[in-house]
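Reopening this one. Same input as before:
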Amino acid sequence: MSDVGRFAPSTTGPAHPGTLLAALLCWLDARSRGGCVVLRLEDLDPERSTPERVAAMEKGLAWLGLDWDETVRQSANRAAHDDALDRLAAAGALYPCACSRATHKSHGLRAPDGGFRYAGTCRGRALPPGGWRETEEPLRAALPGGVVPCIDESGLDLSQDPAAEYGDPVVRRRDGAIAYHLASVVDDALAGVTRVVRGRDLAPTTGVQLRLRAMLDLPRPVYRHHLLLLEERGEKLAKLHGAVGLPELRGRYDAPALCGFLAWAVELRPDASRISPRDLVAGFAWERVRSADRVVRWDGGRLDLPDAERAG
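Same output, byte for byte:
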């Protein structure tokens, strides 16, 4: 059986250089192995994920030269998400939470990803007599304690006790949307994903997802986490920080030029000369990919690497 990878972008805004790099590396990992790769459009946010943004993400990745063996919208998997909630409820692991964001933060318990650890305030609450569908409150999954061992393919030690370090995660939000961790592990299992290739910013929560997989008796994939593109202040390039988006990039680059820049940024190429993703497959190996994060600057309408020198 061949490997199955997946690229799962949030569709809450335009792709930016970090999105495109993550897509390219995930795609190269799968294609260089002769495996399959799924594009999963994460469109569960009812406020920020619009049909126009979903379509723009799909078209933008195609413009870069990436193709997929299957394209799915996460919202199409709602029946499987609800089934997972049923299974958690049947195991006595699901409970409603009345805590507001302010209450959650007021405990001041920091989690490894920089957010706040849930203090377990509502852990003893029972579901309504009619079950979890009868409450509009957020739902959390009570995680068993104990260390989840995990060393990713790059050698990064991700072992942790997620119950102690994060507390019980929200699995259904107040607005009724299925929360990220539960949707992610259920959708990976539906697609038969065997390899999860993603940015290092997501590494700290791997233990939470592995615990949920075990609670739902879902298969465990191989993980690999790669470098991030950073803005000059040291923060990850992201929509949240106003990173330059694909519409602006397409105004200054054609697809081979942008692909060439990304390949140069991660040291797959000695310079930023034009190339297609397909032409990178034959020479792709993780040993050639830079491991350290990299600062990217948008300077005068062009992308640049302040710490790099062009070959030749």
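So the earlier flakiness isn't reproducible anymore. For the record, DSSP finds ten helices and twelve strands in the chain.
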